[in-house]
Design brief:
Blueprint: E1 9-12, H1 18-29, E2 33-38, H2 41-55, E3 59-63, H3 69-83, E4 88-91, H4 106-134, E5 137-142, H5 155-175, E6 180-187, H6 193-204, H7 210-218, H8 229-239, E7 251-254
Parallel strand pairs: 1-2, 1-4, 2-3, 4-5, 5-6, 6-7
């Protein structure tokens, strides 16, 4: 299936590993010109080399922290200068620490909001002017199933990521007339480094073993397994496609049926 995004310019945030990396790979395979970013220079450039070597596509790696407005502005400016515009934005960031309400104070919530909500807001504000000029754009904001169905041990993520859904839906209505779609993806438990870290945290808390952690999760997933980063990437690529132009304001869970709600 031709997604119609060959030579489109895609900016994928937090893409040196995990879901961001998988999405960057997929978009590059589809012929998009891809810009990846992360804080860790060594890991970022290694990922860039991997993607370019496999796909042969145009790939730019820019060191940037999505929490820092100036760095995001400079990254967008550099992308437009070198590649002409930004057609596709995949807003992404690592998750805040796991824990219960008693584990955190106000500063922790501020940090979580800066990481997951305000970074999304800032990235969107930076790229939308270029999308408006072309009357075409695709914005995909990665959140989590925790934004729809809170997870007890992820109170910071539950709080910040739910805000992303509200922002994305509001924004989608305000830019639709310019041919810009804004959608969210709510990944379920997926085989990433982030989930491995949660498994270790579970074991360190004395609640059980790493194996117990995965068993506890999988028994609540109708599909009976964790997802793969590639499955999240497939969903993101379709939402970025030409054919998804009438899909906007959606919060799509890709979770093997984990979320219990029907809406």
């Amino acid at each position: 299936m031709d997604l119609g995004i060959k030579n489109k310019v895609a900016l994928v945030a937090a893409s040196s590993r995990g879901l961001g990396k998988a999405i960057a790979f997929k978009l590059s395979r589809e012929g998009a010109k891809v810009v990846i970013c992360a804080r860790n220079k060594e890991r970022l450039f290694k990922t860039g080399e991997e993607i370019a070597a496999e796909t042969g596509g145009v790939l730019k790696a820019i060191v940037a922290d999505v929490r820092e407005k100036k760095q995001v502005s400079e990254m967008v400016e550099q992308t437009v200068k070198e590649l002409g515009t930004i057609d596709i934005l995949v807003s992404n960031a690592g998750g805040p620490p796991s824990g219960m309400a008693d584990d955190f104070g106000l500063n922790d919530y501020t940090d979580a909001l800066e990481l997951n909500l305000l970074s999304t807001v800032n990235l969107c504000y930076e790229v939308i002017p270029y999308m408006k000029k072309k009357k075409w754009g695709r914005i995909i904001n990665l959140t989590s199933v925790a934004a729809k169905q809170p997870i007890d041990s992820l109170i910071l993520s539950n709080t910040a990521r739910a805000g992303v859904l509200g922002f994305s839906k509001s924004l989608s209505n305000q830019v639709a007339a310019y041919g810009i779609t804004v959608n969210s993806i709510c990944p379920g438990y997926t085989k990433t480094e982030r989930v491995e870290e949660l498994a270790k945290s579970f074991e360190e808390s004395g609640k059980g073993t790493v194996k117990d952690f995965y068993n506890n999760i999988q028994k609540n997933i109708p599909a009976g397994r964790l997802g793969t980063p590639e499955e999240i990437a497939q969903a993101a690529a379709f939402l970025a496609s030409e054919g998804a132009g009438y899909i906007t304001g959606v919060a799509l869970q890709v979770d093997g049926g984990y979320i219990k709600s029907s809406f």
